[in-house]
């Protein structure tokens, strides 16, 4: 159509279906009980997404109260409006309405922890300067009372320019109704009065705001004066205009002289905070209960570290012991569902696609869920109880010697069960370089999917002789675990010295008091993790499973001799399928490792999920894909090359074990690395890197061993 | 304000001190100041990990851990026991 037919409607007449009447940002220190309160207020009416271009999660929930619907944004915890980390930067950007795709908030719900008024008031005083309607929720009031600290909310309110302060207990729900009502009516509330604690700064900010080309908010200008021109506030500096920009640097010189502005700002604001605390809080000598006695005991270096190992041993054991029966059940369910489909629809492409492609594909996604859920249950419990921070603190020195920090310990240990939740657990690491180095090291840890292959090969080829009081088979298994740890640590060290070289990340860890985790928060977080895994990683895993099915199924062998047994027929089909042909094609590549086409095609089939290898070996060696280990291992032992020599010699088996100890044959891990790093670069690098190490390790073992 | 060269790093376990002066040139030290380790604040050395590093301090009831290399930037006046 031509432009003249275009109908123009005045903007005021367009009615947009608004989901919410207002958007409120939930802001607070880390560990202030912000997420617990957010979950209490929104329940299951929340969505987890990502902020554009970064891996920081965006939690948005709806609060319905009366006829009003308020959208709450749970922001990452922050200590100040001068951001120090990516997460803090996001919180600050959303607060100032600079985040693409997120509306500027109509008001602030500030969360302050009664047991940590010191850091809480420091942040809230800055929030008051925003000039937005604001309410404060005082959490942990019960915990503060228990330790003998009484907090006067009236006085806090007065100190914060009249910000209404609501006492809430998230665990029991006390005080929540009044808070809900306040949030629903927040946009109509007049903003609190500005608290001027540094008149020179306020004056400079007012002056600069007057001279700015485009209107800027007072708090924004104030931060500009403190932070100076940085990459993050480029857009705001642009709004100033040339004259005001010159004025900015002059004003900063006068305000701060030679002192670092952030240091000066912190000094002045905390002086004010100390004065307020003396006024609002009354302390009686604390009651020394069993909890503080335990804390005190665990605070000693040796019991603390020993306690950490006990906790991790319990977690590790639980992931193995509790997940295995459920995983066996899922495995049995998928295979019986598969055979039911074959029975119902008969042999054919469709039923094979359904049974071996779709059902097996879904099964290979769901099979990860038990381990992910159990591990995350523990991680969330440890995090919410405050123990995770303590673990990072205790292990910091050891992890620092390999170029990481204490926060890497939990992801690394978790990866012994499964690298997928391990990599998801790296979110606790604030520094990006540290986080990626940990992500690259994690898949080297011997995960539970490597065990079936290790078990098969060790049982078949490593003699069960004793070495001293140890068993050689057990020793080899232990060696493989150790190999994974060393390879992972060397990888982290190598990465931190090369591609991920950078300044040591700031290490300042808040160590919260131990507290009882809230059941609702734990469950909501757990559900969120499961959803994220199924949606983001599950789709990739599923697609790859179907592709591998097609490669093994097509083209069909139509001239199979009719008198062979079913297993032999399956083996013949496999040989002339695309997968079998691929095995033949790549055989020269793997020949220096001592592998024949059968192992080559099994290894190819195992690229999406390494545990498939055992089943594929079963098929190509014509013992059926559910043959027991004994049958398969005796078949492997007698496998011969065309020249009559044995395929599975000891050097070749050791090489194969090394290959599996390294190689990243797991689409789930790759998909999670992609998701957690937000780029294809790292999963591709990790795959190439680990596969080459595995290949050359196997090559070395075979060539040296056979020489 | 004699500090006798005492810093956060030299406080003994259970000992309290008041921060007197901070060498704030390092951005990591500035970060610690944003967390509340500023002049005039009373801190108590609560614990340390194996080998004495990192160290945990109590600051207005909350725990904060820092590495020795950063703790050395904070000069403190130890508070005598019983104060």
Distance between the termini of chain B: 17 Å
Spatial order of the strands in the main sheet of chain A?
2-3-4-1-5-6-8
Uncertain residue ranges of chain A = 1-6, 11-17
Number of separate strands of chain B:
5
Largest interface summary: A-B, 43 and 37 residues
Mean pLDDT score of chain A: 84
- Tell me the number of helical segments of chain A per DSSP (H or I, 4 or more residues long): 30
Largest sheet of chain B: 5 strands, antiparallel
Largest sheet of chain A: 7 strands, mixed
Spatial strand sequence of the major β-sheet of chain B: 4-3-2-1-5
Give an overview in words.
- The complex is a heterodimer of chains A (707) and B (83).
- The model of chain A is unreliable at 1-6 and 11-17 (pLDDT under 50).
- Helix content of chain A is 59%, strand content 8%.
- Chain A is built from 30 helices and twelve strands.
- Chain A is of the alpha/beta class and 707 residues long.
- Chain A is elongated.
- The longest helix of chain A has 45 residues, at 301-345.
- Chain A starts with 21 loop residues before the first strand and ends with a helix.
- In chain A, a hairpin with a 2-residue loop joins β3 and β4.
- In chain A, the strands form three sheets. Chain A has a seven-stranded mixed beta sheet, with helices on both faces. In chain A, strands 7-9 form a two-stranded antiparallel sheet.
- In chain A, α14 runs antiparallel to α22 (519-553), α19 (432-441) runs antiparallel to α21 (472-497) and α25 packs antiparallel against α26 (612-620).
- Chain B has 83 residues and is α+β, with helices and mostly antiparallel strands.
- Helices cover 14% and strands 36% of the residues of chain B.
- Chain B is built from two helices and five strands.
- In chain B, a hairpin with a 2-residue loop joins β3 (55-59) and β4 (62-66).
- Chain B is globular.
- Chain B starts with 15 loop residues before the first strand and ends with a strand.
- The relative contact order of chain B is 0.32.
- Chain A binds chain B through residues 79-80, 82, 84, 115-119, 122, 147, 149, 259-260, 262-263, 266-267, 270-271, 273-274, 277, 299-302, 304-305, 393-397, 406, 506-513, and chain B through 22, 24-25, 27-36, 38-41, 46-54, 56, 59-67, 70.
- β12 (508-511) of chain A pairs antiparallel with β4 (62-66) of chain B, so a sheet runs across the interface.
């Amino acid at each position: 159509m031509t432009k003249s037919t275009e109908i123009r409607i005045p903007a005021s007449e367009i009615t947009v279906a608004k989901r919410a009447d207002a958007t409120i940002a939930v802001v607070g220190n880390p560990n202030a009980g912000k997420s617990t309160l957010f979950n209490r207020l929104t329940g299951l009416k929340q969505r987890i997404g990502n902020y554009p271009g970064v891996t920081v999660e965006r939690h948005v929930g709806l609060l319905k109260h009366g006829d009003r619907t308020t959208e709450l944004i749970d922001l990452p915890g922050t200590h100040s409006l001068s951001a120090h980390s990516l997460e803090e930067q996001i919180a600050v950007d959303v607060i100032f309405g600079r985040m693409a795709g997120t509306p500027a908030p109509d008001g602030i719900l500030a969360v302050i922890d009664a047991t940590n008024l010191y850091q809480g008031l420091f942040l809230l005083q800055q929030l008051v300067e925003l000039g937005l309607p604001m309410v404060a929720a005082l959490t942990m009031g019960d915990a503060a009372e228990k330790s003998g600290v009484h907090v006067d909310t009236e006085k806090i309110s007065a100190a914060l320019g009249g910000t209404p302060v609501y006492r809430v207990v998230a665990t029991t729900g006390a005080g929540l109704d009044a808070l809900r009502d306040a949030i629903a009516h927040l946009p109509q509330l007049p903003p609190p009065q500005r608290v001027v604690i540094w008149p020179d700064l306020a004056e400079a900010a007012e002056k600069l705001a007057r001279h700015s080309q485009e209107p800027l908010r007072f708090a924004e200008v104030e931060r500009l004066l403190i932070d100076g021109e940085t990459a993050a506030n480029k857009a705001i500096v642009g709004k100033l205009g040339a004259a005001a920009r010159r004025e900015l640097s002059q004003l900063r010189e006068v305000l701060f002289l030679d002192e670092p502005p952030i240091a000066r700002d912190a000094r002045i604001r905390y002086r004010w905070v100390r004065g307020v605390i003396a006024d609002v809080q009354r302390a009686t000598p604390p009651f020394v209960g069993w909890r503080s006695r335990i804390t005190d005991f665990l605070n000693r270096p040796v019991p603390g570290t020993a306690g950490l190992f006990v906790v991790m041993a319990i977690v590790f054991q639980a992931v193995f012991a509790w997940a295995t029966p459920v995983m066996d059940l899922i495995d049995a369910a998928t295979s019986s569902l598969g055979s039911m489909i074959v029975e119902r629809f008969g042999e054919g492409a469709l039923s094979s696609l359904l049974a071996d492609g779709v059902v097996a594909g879904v099964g290979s996604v769901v099979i990860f869920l038990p381990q992910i859920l159990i591990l995350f249950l523990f991680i969330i419990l440890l995090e919410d109880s405050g123990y995770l921070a303590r673990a990072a603190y205790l292990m910091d020195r050891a992890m620092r010697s390999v170029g990481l920090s204490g926060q890497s310990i939990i992801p690394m240990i978790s990866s012994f069960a499964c690298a997928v939740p391990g990599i998801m657990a790296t979110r606790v690491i604030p520094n990006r370089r540290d986080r990626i180095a940990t992500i690259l090291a994690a898949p080297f840890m011997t995960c539970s999917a490597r065990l079936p292959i290790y078990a098969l090969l060790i049982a078949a080829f490593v003699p069960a002789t004793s070495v001293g009081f140890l068993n050689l088979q057990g020793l080899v298994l232990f060696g493989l675990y150790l190999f994974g740890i060393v390879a992972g640590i060397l990888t982290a060290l190598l990465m931190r010295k090369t591609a991920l070289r950078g300044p040591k990340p700031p290490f300042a860890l808040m160590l919260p008091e131990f507290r009882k985790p809230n059941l609702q928060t734990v469950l909501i977080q757990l559900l969120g993790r499961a959803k994220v895994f199924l949606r983001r990683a599950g789709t990739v895993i599923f697609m790859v499973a179907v592709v591998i099915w097609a490669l093994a199924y097509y083209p069909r062998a139509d001239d199979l001799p009719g008198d062979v047994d079913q297993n032999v027929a399956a083996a013949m089909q496999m040989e002339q399928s695309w997968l079998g042909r691929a095995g033949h094609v790549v055989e020269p590549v793997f020949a220096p490792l001592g592998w024949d086409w059968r192992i080559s095609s099994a290894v190819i089939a195992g690229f999406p999920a390494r545990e498939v290898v055992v089943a594929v070996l079963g098929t190509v060696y014509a013992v059926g894909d559910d043959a027991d280990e004994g049958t398969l291992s005796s078949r492997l032992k007698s496998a011969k090359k065309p020249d009559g020599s044995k395929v599975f010699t000891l050097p070749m088996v050791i090489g194969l074990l090394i290959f599996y100890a390294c190689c990243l044959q797991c689409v789930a891990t790759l998909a999670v690395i992609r998701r957690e790093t937000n780029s294809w670069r790292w999963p591709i690098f990790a795959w190439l890197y680990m596969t080459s190490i595995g290949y050359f390790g196997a090559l070395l073992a075979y060539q040296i061993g056979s020489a | 304000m004699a500090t006798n060269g005492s810093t956060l790093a030299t406080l003994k376990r259970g000992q309290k001190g008041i921060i007197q002066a901070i060498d704030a040139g390092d951005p990591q030290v500035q970060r610690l100041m944003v967390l509340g380790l500023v002049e005039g604040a009373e801190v108590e050395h609560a614990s340390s990990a194996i080998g004495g590093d990192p160290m945990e301090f109590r600051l207005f009831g909350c725990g904060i851990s820092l590495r020795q290399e950063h703790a050395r930037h904070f000069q403190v006046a130890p508070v005598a026991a019983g104060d």
